[in-house]
Every structure is written in structure tokens, then in C-alpha cells.
Design goal:
CATH class of the largest domain: Mainly Alpha
Helix content: 40-55%
CATH architecture of the largest domain: Orthogonal Bundle
Strand content: 5-15%
Strand order of the largest sheet: 6-5-4-7-8
Number of strands: 15
CATH topology of the largest domain: Tex N-terminal region-like
CATH superfamily of the largest domain: Tex N-terminal region-like
């Protein structure tokens, strides 16, 4: 363990070094983030999952920095360039950018203009000019470097005249300026802090790239550009519609360079001034723009990934209906409604197709089929996918007069088609076609969203923005962290969990998860957590990491149904014995739990945080942290876009939250947009402050555009009243100077827009 890394991370995250060191050691020993956060609180000083994950990620970054540092030192040593002073600079570099800047002058280069000038012997002239002695005439000095007539020097090494000699000297100086570590640091800061991102349409691409029209002539400060606009511009460039550049004002950049390198007056100083300008235009501006593009992309990626991760967490932790006998319907017009019956454990019992809208006879047959299935299988809930024909199907079901206890619920089916064509679906339902598999997925999502959604690639669930444009490795890592956190936070019933769900349990992987399912199928349900040790390849370390997150419902020991880790069972036994009762007595009787004197059970490994967790679990063993399921219904009579009128107040469900607002399903097959300026009476920077995915809301319809199938909504209290009419959307502000006149007003920003256009302008790129 690197002590320097520990100290650095502690400072960055405002943690005690001992906390970072403990977490790093546990991670190094193979501990997972959920396990460390839940069962090693005493060691880490109560660090939560967020802090532990941040330590893990920063350790990886610093490890990569050290690896690059060693690679550079090796390269310098092999080329006999490493001095003690240079080694000190390399060792002292705290960021990758600084490290690369230190290495820049020594990086193996292709044959540059400066290289050629040095080969021609002009290094001495460059140094003379750089000294900027006002008494020195650079042209007279340059004449001394001109190759004499008839010289036997190779043609490519000849200096034909004074102008060529001075140009060669400036080439050398330009490269020196570009390679200077401090200069690169200042220029990098200038580009990121005061650079403008400008985009233009490529000639002839106007019609083809109409969806990027807002960026055909766009400019704003890079530091203020929100992630969705940066990613939109980059997508337009990737599709060959836009070109863009990131540059500060040229005079500002050159002024910085001149202040550093032009230190005198006279003819030599003028040559240095020319070299500085050449350095910026030919070298620095290009390399700094490349870095600015990369840095802005990384920032935009991080923001977009964070939005996706927050949305995914809310979706995965949606309220489960629970183990109910369910009839699930995947609606359709021409091809009919695929209908399946699932038992309380989600097993497929029956499948059929009904045609409720294809003539009177077909409608009667559909009615008879549904009534028969509900009665025969004692159906407790009906799940209807929210795609095509969903509201029509819902109305059909609600008019059947089914028993009052049967809940009818609309279910978001995003990604169901992806699951139905997946290897997991083919493996589970090899004999069924994809339509049956899709209907099964809809039904299971109602029963337990988490257990079903983990079978789908998170990117296919549809709760992000620009997920296909961001760094895919970073996205996968972030989303995997979210899934792991949710799965382990809820806990997994080992006797009913799918292989896919078990894969996300702390300490398990796909191979061990498959072995658990195979062992369960061969030997029957696990009767205790101890039984897991019989599973092939599930060793002591794996058991330690996983056991606390696995539940065995109906086990002889009630602790096997709880989040109490087996390593703490002995403590609970002592508690029960000291009170003269059994563990089941402790679970049933709150008065007994109140008598437990926690300080008596504190040891070196088990402190009060763990003891508090244990007693909380005894009160509600294996409790589900998700909110209780509540039925939801869309407004009656509002089934299609034409039914929606401005001024209406409608119930809806948030389906996606982005940086520019939230999308809400109001039951008309077309989500409406609540622009960020309409999320609350006050302006909010982060939409997640106000709404979450799957949240039930009441929205006011502001405007409807049937031709473009768009609905503008509001969550503001007085939305729709003339006096409360909102100002144009803030998501597209006219870019203002950062510190006038350093950053000029951007060119041709869109004029003040009508409310509807402003509210939906950014949604075009979703």
C-alpha cells in the first residue's frame, strides 16, 4: 500500500488517513464495496458505499499515474536523459497532465521543423536571439550561419540565406515555448476556463442534419456549456453534420506567451515575439485544443453517466408488487395482445393471444379468455405494457368487471424486447417465441422490478441521455456499481433468484451464480446459509463476502432470513442466552430487544455500529428497503395525443430525468417534457433535486404540438396562469463574457424563443 496515495486521497476526500488506509487494505484483500460498507464499519470509521467507491477509483487512477511515471523514467534512462533534477520533477508530478508536460521536451518526436533547424546548426543562433540583448543585430548574427557558396554541406543541411537562418531559429524557439511545462499549464487553464466552443454546419449538410439546427452557428463559453450540449455538438460532428473548435481569444493566448518569453526590446525581442506567435498558431493552439476537447468530453461524460446512474438506481428500486399471481399483457393491434399467466414466483403457467379490437366476435372471445384465466388461476394483478395499444387494452380490461381485488397496473416495458431476444431469455424459455418472453418480462417487472431488470443491459432500459456517446467503459463501471449497490441493498432470496440476479451479489460472479442455481436444481432449495458452502467453487472468502446479502426464507435459524452476517450469529446467541430466551423470541418481542445491553457485546471486531445494525435486523428480519407498492392510474378519457389540451392537470409517471428536464408519461404513448425551468417555482440546477424516475406526479399541460408529437408540461404550482408565465428556457442562455472583454459575446445565439420552442429545444438531441 502506497502511503503517499493514502495521504493524498484522504486530503482530497476530507477523510482521516486511517479510514482510507483501512478501506484500501480491505479492497486489496478482495473485499467488495457493499461488504465493506455494511460489515466493516468499525474498520473504516463508518464509510459509506460512495466514499469507499471513491477511494477504490482514486487508487486505480493513482496506480495508473504511477505506472505511467515508471514508463517515462525507464524511457529517459534508456536514452541517457535522466538527471536527478528531471527525476525529481517526474516523481513530483501529481497529475497525468503535469507528468506529460514534464516529459514533453524529452518525448521522442518525429522530425520537426525545429529538429531540422538544429541539424543545420542554428541552435546557437536561437539561444542568442532568446537572450534578447538590444545591442545584438539578429540579421548580422544570422548571416554567420548562412552556408557559404560552394560548400560541401549536404543539400538538406544548407542554410541558403539570412531569412532561412532566422526562420530556423524561430522554429527552435517555437518548439521551446510549446514544450515549456509552466507555459502548457497556463495555456491549458486558459483554454478550459476562457475558451469558447464554436460549432458550424458543414456546407451541404443543412437538410440532412436538421436535428442539429440549433448548433449550425453556435458559440458559448466552454466552462459554462452543459454536458448535453457538448455531447450534442460532438454527436453532430461524428455524424458529419457539424464542425467545431475550442479556442480562447487568440490575443489573450499570445499575451500570456509574450509575458513569459518576450523580456527585452529591440530586434531580437521582435524575433522572439514572432516565434511566440508561430508557436501558438502552429503548435500550442492545436495541442491545447486537443486536450480541451478531451477534458470537456470527460466532464460531459461524467455528468451524463451520473444522470444515468441516478435514474437507474431509482428505476431498480421501484416499488415491487411482490409475489402475486399475475396475468401480463403485451398489447398490440394487428398482431393481438400476447397474454401470459405467472404464478406467485414468476413461473410461466400459460400463454395465449387475444384480439380485443378486431370485431365484435374477437372482442367477445377476448373477454371470455381473460375472465376464464383470472378465475382459473386466481389472478391477483394484471400487468399491461405501456407500448402501442396500451391505453386501449387497459380500458378493455377495466370494463370487464373483474373482481375488485385484481389490480390493473400499467408497466414500463422499455427494454423488454431486448430481454426477449437475449441469451438469458432463450435459456429460460427455449420453447417460447420472443413475444411470450416479452410478456413474461412485463409481468415480472411488476412483481419485482429489480430482479427482472438486472437481466437487461442497463443501456437498453432508456433512462439516460447520450448513453451511446459517452465512454463505454466508464459507463459500464458506473452502472454496474449501481446495480451491485441496489441488489445488495435489497438482498437476494437464494432459492428463487435467477443466475443473472445472483451474479450481482457481493463476492459472486457468473460462474459461481450458475453453480448455485445448478446445485439448487439438483439438491432442492437451500435450507440454511451454511448449505451454500457445498456449492462448487464457493469458498470461505466468497461465503464471507456474499452470505450477508443472501436470504433463505423459511430457514430454521431466522437470522438466515436477515442481513445479520453469519460471523455475528454467535453474538446474537449470547444476547438471547443472557436474556434466557431464544432468537425467535428476540425477533417477535420488541420489549426483549430493548433489554439488550449493547455495550456488553462490544469486541475488537464488533462495535456499536454493527450491534445497532443487528438489533435493527432483529426487529424486521430481511426487510425490503423499497417503498410499498401503490397502484397508479392515468386520467380516464386521455388516451391519445389529441385528447391532451393546454391547461389540463394530469397524473403522470416520470420516465426519465436529464440535465435539461424530466420526461413524464401521461398515458398517451408520447412522453411530455417538463423543462428544467418548469420543474419548480424556483430554478433548479439539478433536476434530480425535484423528481426521480418512477415518481408519480401531477403535471399541467402548457402546450401541445400534434404535428411533431410534443407535449410541454410543468410542475410549477401556478403553471398556466398568465401572471405566472415562465421566462424563456434557461438551458440555452446567451453566452456572456467571463470577464469582458476577454470572452466576446457569442455569434448568432438563438433569439428569445416562445415557451414551447424553448422548453423542447434541448430534447431534440435526446
Amino acid at each position: 500500500m502506497n502511503e503517499l496515495h493514502v495521504g493524498k486521497i484522504a486530503g482530497e476526500l476530507s477523510l482521516r488517513p486511517a479510514q482510507v488506509e483501512a478501506a484500501a487494505k480491505l479492497l486489496e484483500e478482495g473485499g467488495t464495496v457493499p461488504f465493506i460498507a455494511r460489515y466493516r464499519k468499525e474498520a473504516t470509521g463508518l464509510l459509506d458505499e460512495v466514499a469507499i467507491a471513491a477511494i477504490r477509483d482514486r487508487l486505480e487512477q493513482l496506480g495508473e499515474l504511477d505506472a505511467r511515471r515508471q514508463s517515462i523514467l525507464k524511457s529517459l534512462e534508456e536514452r541517457n536523459l535522466l538527471t536527478e533534477e528531471l527525476r525529481g520533477k517526474v516523481d513530483g508530478a501529481l497529475t497525468m497532465a503535469t507528468l506529460e508536460d514534464v516529459y514533453q521536451p524529452f518525448r521522442p518526436k518525429r522530425r520537426t521543423r525545429a529538429t531540422i533547424a538544429r541539424e543545420r546548426g542554428l541552435e546557437a543562433l536561437a539561444e542568442l536571439v532568446l537572450a534578447q540583448n538590444p545591442a545584438v543585430d539578429p540579421e548580422k548574427e544570422a548571416a554567420k550561419f548562412v552556408t557559404p557558396q560552394g560548400s560541401a554541406v549536404a543539400e538538406e543541411l544548407k542554410v541558403p540565406d539570412v531569412a532561412a537562418a532566422l526562420q530556423g531559429a524561430r522554429d527552435i524557439l517555437a518548439e521551446k515555448v510549446s514544450d515549456d511545462t509552466d507555459t502548457r499549464t497556463k495555456m491549458r487553464d486558459l483554454f478550459l476556463r476562457r475558451g469558447l466552443i464554436r460549432s458550424e454546419v458543414i456546407a451541404g449538410k443543412e437538410a440532412e442534419g436538421a436535428k442539429f439546427k440549433d448548433y449550425f452557428d453556435w458559440s458559448e463559453p466552454l466552462a459554462n456549456a452543459p454536458s448535453h450540449r457538448v455531447l450534442a455538438i460532438r454527436r453532430g460532428a461524428a455524424e458529419g453534420v457539424l464542425s467545431f473548435q475550442i479556442r480562447p481569444q487568440e490575443e489573450d493566448a499570445i499575451a500570456i506567451l509574450e509575458s513569459r518569453f518576450v523580456t527585452g526590446r529591440g530586434a531580437c525581442a521582435e524575433q522572439v515575439r514572432l516565434a511566440v506567435k508561430e508557436s501558438y498558431k502552429r503548435l500550442l493552439s492545436l495541442s491545447m485544443e486537443t486536450e480541451a476537447r478531451l477534458e470537456s468530453k470527460n466532464r460531459a461524460d461524467a455528468d451524463a453517466i451520473n444522470v444515468f446512474a441516478q435514474n437507474l438506481r431509482q428505476l431498480l428500486l421501484s416499488s415491487p408488487l411482490g409475489q402475486k399471481r399475475t396475468l401480463a399483457i403485451d398489447p398490440g393491434f394487428r398482431t393481438g395482445c400476447k397474454t401470459v399467466v405467472l404464478d406467485a414466483q414468476g413461473r410461466l403457467l400459460h400463454h395465449d393471444v387475444i384480439y380485443p379490437d378486431q370485431g365484435r366476435q374477437k372482442t367477445l372471445e377476448a373477454e371470455q379468455t381473460i375472465r376464464h384465466l383470472v378465475e382459473q388461476h386466481q389472478i391477483e394483478a394484471i400487468a399491461i405494457g405501456n407500448g402501442t395499444a396500451s391505453r386501449e387494452t387497459e380500458n378493455f380490461i377495466r370494463k370487464l368487471g373483474l373482481p375488485a381485488g385484481v389490480q390493473v397496473v400499467m408497466v414500463n416495458e422499455a427494454g423488454a424486447s431486448v430481454y426477449s431476444a437475449s441469451e438469458a431469455a432463450r435459456e429460460e424459455f427455449a420453447e417460447q417465441d420472443i413475444t411470450v418472453r416479452g410478456a413474461v418480462s412485463i409481468g415480472r417487472r411488476l412483481m419485482d422490478p429489480l430482479a427482472e431488470l438486472v437481466k437487461i443491459d442497463p443501456k437498453s432500459i432508456g433512462v439516460g441521455q447520450y448513453q451511446h456517446d459517452v465512454d463505454q467503459d466508464a459507463l459500464k463501471k458506473s452502472l454496474d456499481d449501481v446495480v451491485v449497490s441496489c441488489v445488495n441493498g435489497v438482498g437476494v432470496e437464494v432459492n428463487t433468484a435467477s443466475k443473472q440476479l445472483l451474479t450481482y451479489v457481493s463476492g459472486l460472479n457468473a460462474g459461481i451464480a450458475e453453480n448455485i442455481v445448478a446445485y439448487r436444481n439438483e439438491h432442492g432449495p437451500f435450507k440454511s446459509r451454511r448449505g451454500l458452502k457445498e456449492v462448487p467453487r464457493l469458498g470461505e472468502k466468497t461465503f464471507e463476502q456474499a452470505a450477508g446479502f443472501l436470504r433463505v426464507r423459511g430457514a430454521e435459524n431466522p437470522l438466515d432470513e436477515s442481513a445479520v452476517h453469519p460471523e455475528s450469529y454467535a453474538v446474537v446467541d449470547r444476547m438471547a442466552k443472557d436474556l434466557g430466551v431464544t432468537i425467535p423470541d428476540l425477533v417477535r418481542d420488541d420489549a426483549l430487544r430493548q433489554k439488550i445491553e449493547k455495550h456488553k457485546y462490544v469486541t475488537e471486531k464488533i462495535g456499536l455500529p454493527t450491534l445497532n445494525d443487528i438489533i435493527a435486523e432483529l426487529a424486521k428480519p430481511g426487510r425490503d428497503p423499497r417503498e410499498k407498492f401503490e397502484a397508479f392510474a392515468f386520467a380516464e378519457g386521455i388516451n391519445k395525443l389529441e385528447d391532451v389540451k393546454p391547461g389540463m392537470k394530469l397524473p403522470g409517471i416520470v420516465t426519465n430525468v436529464t440535465a435539461f428536464g424530466a420526461f413524464v408519461d401521461v398515458g398517451v404513448h408520447q412522453d411530455g417534457l417538463v423543462h428544467v425551468s418548469q420543474l419548480a417555482d424556483r430554478f433548479v440546477k439539478d433536476p434530480n433535486e425535484v423528481v426521480k424516475v418512477q415518481q408519480r406526479v401531477e403535471v399541467t399541460v402548457m402546450e401541445v404540438d400534434p404535428a411533431r408529437k410534443r407535449i410541454a408540461l410543468s410542475l410549477r404550482k401556478n403553471a398556466g396562469k398568465p401572471a405566472e408565465r415562465p421566462a424563456p428556457a434557461r438551458s440555452a442562455p446567451v453566452a456572456k463574457p467571463v470577464s469582458a472583454p476577454v470572452v466576446p459575446k457569442p455569434r448568432q445565439q438563438p433569439a428569445a424563443e416562445g415557451w414551447f420552442t424553448a422548453a423542447l429545444r434541448n430534447a431534440k438531441q435526446k
